[in-house]
Amino acid sequence: MIYSRRANIYDLVSLSDCNLVNVIENYQMKYYFYHLLSWPHLTNITINKGFVCGYSMSKLEEDKNKAGHVTAVGVLRSFRNLGIATNVIKQTRKGANSIAMECTSEKISNKIAAVTNFGESDNAMNKVYDCDCSYLYVRVTNWAAYSLYKFLGYFVDEVAKEYFHDKEDAYSMKLIFKKNP
């Protein structure tokens, strides 16, 4: 069974392994600890057979009032196009503790969609940390990630020239949260 839940300290080695295999931007272990201990509701993982196969790691912006920041999203290549990235990002927005899905021959994304139909105002960044919006940076050449973030309601706020270590430009994307009544 594949399931998603909030990460804990015992997940960080597996989360780091998932990041090292898939993502160009890598972090030291202390950075994962910093995120998890500072913003425990904002790091979520998807697990298959005891190992992290996808994750979303977010934080609060230090230089912007009431803004969240999606630091990293990663999914193992063999688990892509199954809705896992969408799930962990939405789970962060909801602040859910655990979402389980049974694996069948159907695409996992159908199962994920059935249990992650969250409203925009129902998110951890807004409810727990009182954020008004969320930012993220995505490579201008990463069409799949860009499309995912657009689907989730993000829009391009600006282009950050030479943002990444290899000097590639990034889209700074923003999501404005609906206010809770």
Characterization of this structure:
With 181 residues, the protein is of the alpha+beta class. It has a single domain (2-176), classed as Gcn5-related N-acetyltransferase (GNAT) (Aminopeptidase). It has six helices and eight strands, in the order E-H-H-E-E-E-H-E-H-H-E-H-E-E. The chain has helices at residues 12-22, 29-38, 84-94, 108-115, 124-127, 143-151; strands spanning 2-6, 43-48, 51-60, 67-75, 98-101, 133-139, 155-160, 170-176. It has an eight-stranded mixed β-sheet with strand order 5-1-2-3-4-6-8-7, with helices on both faces. The longest helix has 11 residues, at 12-22. It is globular and about 40 Å long. It starts with a strand and ends in a 5-residue tail after the last strand. 34% of the residues are buried. The model is unreliable at 96-122 (pLDDT under 50). InterPro entries: Acyl_CoA_acyltransferase, Ard1-like, GNAT_dom. GO terms for molecular function: protein N-terminal-serine acetyltransferase activity; protein-N-terminal-glutamate acetyltransferase activity. Keywords: Acyltransferase, Transferase. Residues 1-178 form the N-acetyltransferase domain. One of its GO terms (cellular component) is NatA complex.
